[in-house]
Model the fold of this input.
Amino acid sequence: MTFPVIGGQVTTEVGWCARVVCALPSGGLLVIDQWESAQPPGASNLLIPSEWLVDTEEPAVVRARFGDVETDLVIYHGRLATREDKTWSRHYFQTEKATSLQLEPARDSGGNQRLVFGIGVVDSSEVASARVQAETLDLRGRTSMSARP
Done:
């Protein structure tokens, strides 16, 4: 099975990082972030507008509700590091309250870092196949995200 995928990468003086996003056929997104450096520690930050009720009681699941709409953010590899009240602006000079989630990647034996999470995943059986496809993308002229020197 193949999935619609988009990704990109950037190289800095401290290392290489990439993000791949897969659209799952039954609904939802799978996001894979990878850092090819041990330091500084990687992190992905998400802001959820304060109109949404956010539940972080389970360590690997964040549930967000707005009226009759509910969606889950599931962390498959990595962890939820922090949850904080913040502000953001979607309109010029109009700040609003939001919940900030900082997701932290897991480290492999070589010190590289990887974070895998899904947003609104309807059929969790699609995650493994999408992850395999996304992790074999050639974002830097190499064979895969998981086969870095």
